[in-house]
Design brief:
Length: 507
């Protein structure tokens, strides 16, 4: 019996990691197992033809919000060409509203719901042994007598029961993905949650052993998928300590961190780290108490800002700070306040706006009518407007988000923007709003992918804003700051080409 585990690559990197886990639990089974990740831009027809040539008995697709439509197209072609092929779909995206998904996709025979490792294993065992006792497999949805049966979710997987997904699929590459825990202490309304979402962690000894494997391999970066890595502050401290003491001088480690949970002892420890060893993603979401309460965030925003400020003062940790646009009760004015406070918190570190999406399994999707949400009916379910933010407001903020991401999302132009804010006496949101207006009104939005173009845009934009100054000294100082920021972002050869062309974007 031949089994294919397949997915279509997207920007959702967790899908690739989940595929590794699934492969690791079936690779030693009596099945003939293949695993394939098809390219993001691969034609649906080419994927279909490749799968048909493989003559698989069972085809499993791991689905997310970004590849759902492509996978649906491929599945339809497979079932029309080879009706006897069993088609199975899994992933968190199809774990919610499963019955509706199967009604909309009649070519799907089975759905693996929730954390899929044990569910897929039991399903395959049942098929291989000709038991077909699908009603006794928690987490499985299936068709019978033209009816759709959706079983309750399985119990959460205990992390130490899972194999290390890199044992035989080697951990080579510039970026490696990893998780040491699943679940969340808080049921934040804009994130999907299974009914049982208690935190389950790998043992500390196992985490250190597996991190040692990565340290020996020396990838450029290891990214932790843990939703809130420092939910247990003591455990996080021990792992930080291990990485500091065993630093290979090459690899950086990225974590999703709760700023409120950073204690003084951990901050002192992190000050001993190599600069760049740690990258922290800190989701501020909003600085408005009513908004935070509506989405189930209990943070004391002042404690969070105090902790993160102390962390960044040591200058060793890179912090990616973000706010979310489209949360309940937040007008553009309130969002601007959150933006300004969080931008000040980042203080030259990477900063960005996340645009809210009402993903399946989120409380906000269930409460969409309560807050007047309008959102796209097709994935990835982007918010169009709310009772407090019109569609025009959301478009404007989306443009600001794109501009912010391009200019400072990776820590770029960290000298130029503080200089402009000081010179012009403007608040950050107002400055980036004007910059977004300038970029889009001049049709420059398709040129924001190159650092030299960004430098020229910023130069031209600032030239207009500085026109009222009586002397050119401030603008000259800003020009030097823009040039210095560009120098830190590109190679010496690119700087030579930039200087040869000059500041004119159209030259």
């Amino acid at each position: 019996m031949k089994l294919l585990l397949a997915t279509i690559k997207t920007d959702c990197n967790y899908t690739d990691y989940a595929m590794r886990y699934l492969y690791s639990i079936v690779e030693d089974s009596p099945l003939d197992v293949d695993m394939k990740t098809y390219g993001k831009y691969e034609l649906d027809g080419n994927i279909y033809e490749d799968i048909i040539r493989g003559q698989y008995n069972i085809v499993y697709f791991h689905c997310n919000a970004l590849n759902e439509r492509h996978i649906s197209n491929v599945i339809e072609m497979i079932k029309k060409a080879a009706p006897s092929t069993a088609v199975v779909v899994g992933g968190m995206h199809v774990s919610f509203e499963t019955r509706n998904y199967m009604k909309a996709n009649p070519w799907v025979d089975y759905v693996i719901r929730g954390e899929g490792e044990s569910v897929l294993f039991r399903f395959l065992k049942s098929v291989y042994e000709y038991e077909f006792d699908f009603e006794n497999i928690p987490g499985l949805a299936y068709r019978t007598d033209e009816q759709i049966v959706v079983n309750n979710y399985d119990e959460p997987v205990e992390m130490d029961d899972l194999p290390f997904p890199y044992d035989k699929t080697d951990a080579d590459g510039s970026v490696i993905y990893y998780e040491s825990m699943r679940g969340s202490a808080e049921r934040v309304a804009y994130l999907p949650h299974l009914p049982e979402s208690r935190i389950r962690s790998l043992s500390l000894a196992r985490v250190c052993r597996e991190l040692r494997y990565f340290l020996v391999k020396e990838p450029e970066q290891v990214v932790f998928f843990d939703r809130c890595f420092n939910a247990n502050s003591e455990r996080a401290y021990r792992i930080f300590e291990y990485l500091i003491n065993n630093d290979n001088g090459v690899t950086s480690f990225e974590f999703n961190i709760s700023g409120e949970n950073l204690d003084d002892e951990t901050i002192r420890l992190l000050a001993e780290a190599r600069e760049g060893l740690f990258i922290f993603n800190i989701d501020v979401a909003s600085t408005n108490a009513e908004v935070l309460a509506a989405v189930g965030r209990k943070e004391n925003i002042y404690q969070l800002m105090y902790n993160v400020t102390k962390l960044l003062q040591a200058g060793k940790v890179i912090a990616n700070v973000s706010v979310i646009a489209g949360l309940p009760y937040e007008t553009e004015e309130l969002f601007a306040r959150s933006f300004n406070k969080a931008y000040g918190l980042a203080d030259g570190s990477p900063f960005g706006i996340k645009m809210l999406r009402l993903a399946k399994g989120t409380q906000l999707r269930m409460d969409a009518d309560k807050y007047g949400y309008l959102y796209t009916s097709a994935s990835p379910y982007d918010v169009i407007g709310t009772d407090h933010l019109s569609a025009e407001d959301m478009i404007r903020i989306r443009n600001i988000s794109r501009v912010t991401q391009s200019f400072i999302g990776n820590g770029g132009f960290k000298n130029a923007f503080p200089r402009m804010l000081t010179d012009l006496g403007m608040k950050p949101y107002d400055l980036f709003s004007k910059l977004a207006d300038y970029v889009y009104s001049h049709g420059m939005d398709n040129k924001m992918h190159k650092p030299d173009n960004l430098a020229r845009m910023l130069f031209a934009f600032a030239h207009e804003l500085y026109a009222d100054f009586e002397d050119d000294l401030k603008f000259q100082i800003l020009t030097d700051a823009i040039h210095a920021d560009l120098e830190s972002a590109v190679s010496e050869e690119e700087i030579i080409r930039f200087e040869r062309k000059g500041w004119d974007l159209e030259a």
